[in-house]
């Protein structure tokens, strides 16, 4: 989970006059490749970030915050008549900085961009949003909160007027009806339909190296309330990577981002890490490592057509439907022979049954022995 940020406050000036003001909290969660696995690290924007590269113009402004060894986060603002809005959010991060990315196998500088949701801010007002806003791009999640920004400061003085974001708007209760309505029975929420099966693949060197088909549902607890959401594969973005020891599949829809990391111990593979971020008004993120799900032999695919329900953490559950996955050893872009979870479960029944039968047989032999011995002893006494 995120570490709480204490926030940063910056003033950008132009000709010695304040032209852009910002106060915000910003947290990052980044997944990156290590030598033998996928690492995930969470960190906050430090309070000593600098504003080099920030600039103000008549119709556009840019806030740029620099920190660490070559990292920067920037957001640009565009004026449109009597209002302005945010354009791209860009995060540049240097994987060679071990203080933020320990164990990274690459020293590349990465660049990700996404549009922000700050819109329709009236000129000469400050944009205020205390609620969390999750911005996700590739393998990066950025969480903004406690934001106060004025992108176009007039005459060097901040405005006292506020434009409040939609997430912070109070819910206005409806007026109570003067007519007493008959009580209606409470009905449970309508259960979700079976999620649509998505077909996903990852390529490396122009050939398919990972295959996965499944319907996916996420159950998560937030603020003591349980929620369930189906993953919609229509229009979803698919990212991933393949390696000898680990492979990764990242699925991104409008509502959530789900990342699966698989391990290979040369004989078997299994799902090792699950990282789930729910964007749709929830701001939920949960990561769990050291899992041992979907295990089967290298050179085979894992299949489970029945619904599987896996409790990942106290806050997160994973439901899969019509599952088939092969993260290693894909040949000619098709699944290898599948090991079915039902057949795997039944394979344990035979040795268990044989073992029980042997125990019963041994007990019968032992009991028969003692009964026969007692009879022989009784016969011996009678012969005297």
From TrEMBL:
Identify the stretch(es) annotated as Disordered: 174-195
Q: Which GO terms describe its cellular component?
A: late endosome membrane; lysosomal membrane; plasma membrane
Residue stretches making up the Lysosome-associated membrane glycoprotein 2-like luminal domain = 11-154, 195-330
Mention any Pfam family matching this sequence. Answer: Lamp2_2nd
Pro residues composition bias: residue spans: 185-194
List cystine links.
129-165, 304-341
Q: Where is the signal peptide?
A: none
Annotated InterPro entries = Lamp2-like_luminal, Lamp2-like_TM, Lysosome-assoc_membr_glycop
Membrane-topology descriptor: Single-pass type I membrane protein
**Segments of skewed composition (Low complexity):** 174-184
**PROSITE patterns reported for this sequence:** LAMP_3 (PS51407)
Where, subcellularly, is it found?
Answer: Endosome membrane; Lysosome membrane
Mind telling me which residue stretches traverse the membrane in this protein?
348-371
Which GO biological process annotations does it have? establishment of protein localization to organelle
Sorted keywords for this record are:
Disulfide bond, Endosome, Glycoprotein, Lysosome, Membrane, Signal, Transmembrane, Transmembrane helix
Report domain Lysosome-associated membrane glycoprotein 2-like transmembrane positions: 350-382
Family according to the record: Belongs to the LAMP family.
Instruction: Name the chain's protein.
Output: Lysosome-associated membrane glycoprotein 2 isoform X4
- The source organism is Austrofundulus limnaeus
């Amino acid at each position: 989970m995120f570490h709480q940020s204490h926030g940063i406050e910056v003033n950008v000036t132009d000709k010695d006059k304040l032209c852009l003001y910002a106060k915000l909290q910003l947290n990052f969660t980044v997944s990156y490749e290590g030598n033998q696995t996928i690492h995930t690290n969470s960190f906050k924007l430090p309070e000593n970030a600098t504003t080099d590269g920030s600039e103000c113009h008549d119709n556009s402004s840019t806030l740029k915050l620099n920190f660490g060894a070559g990292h920067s986060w920037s957001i640009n603002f565009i004026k449109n008549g009597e209002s302005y809005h945010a354009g791209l959010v860009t995060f540049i991060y240097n994987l060679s900085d071990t203080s933020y990315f320990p164990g990274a196998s690459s020293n590349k500088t990465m660049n990700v961009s996404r549009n922000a949701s700050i819109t329709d801010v009236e000129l000469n007002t400050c944009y205020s949003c205390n609620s969390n806003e999750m911005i996700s791009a590739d393998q990066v999640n950025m969480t903004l909160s406690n934001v106060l920004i004025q992108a176009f400061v007039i005459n060097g003085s901040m405005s006292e007027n506020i434009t409040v974001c939609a997430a912070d708007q109070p819910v206005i209760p409806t007026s109570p009806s003067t007519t007493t309505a008959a009580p209606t029975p409470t009905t449970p929420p309508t259960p979700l339909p079976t999620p649509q099966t998505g077909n996903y693949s990852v390529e490396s060197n122009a050939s398919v190296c990972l295959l996965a088909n499944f319907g996916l549902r996420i159950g998560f607890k937030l603020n003591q309330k349980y929620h369930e959401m189906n993953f919609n594969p229509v229009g979803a973005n698919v990212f991933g990577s393949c390696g000898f020891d680990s492979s990764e599949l990242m699925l991104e829809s409008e509502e959530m981002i789900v990342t699966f990391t698989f391990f290979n111990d040369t004989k078997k593979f299994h799902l090792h890490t699950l990282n789930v971020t729910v964007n749709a008004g929830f701001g939920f993120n949960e990561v769990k490592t050291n899992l041992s799900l979907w295990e089967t032999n290298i050179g085979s695919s894992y299949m489970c057509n029945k619904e599987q329900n896996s409790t990942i953490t106290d806050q997160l559950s994973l439901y899969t439907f019509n599952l088939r996955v092969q993260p290693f050893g894909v040949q000619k872009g098709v699944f290898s022979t599948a090991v079915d979870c039902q057949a795997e479960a039944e394979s344990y029944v035979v040795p268990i049954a044989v073992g029980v039968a042997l125990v019963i047989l041994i007990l019968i032999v032992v009991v028969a022995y003692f009964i026969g011995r007692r009879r022989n002893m009784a016969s011996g006494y009678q012969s005297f």
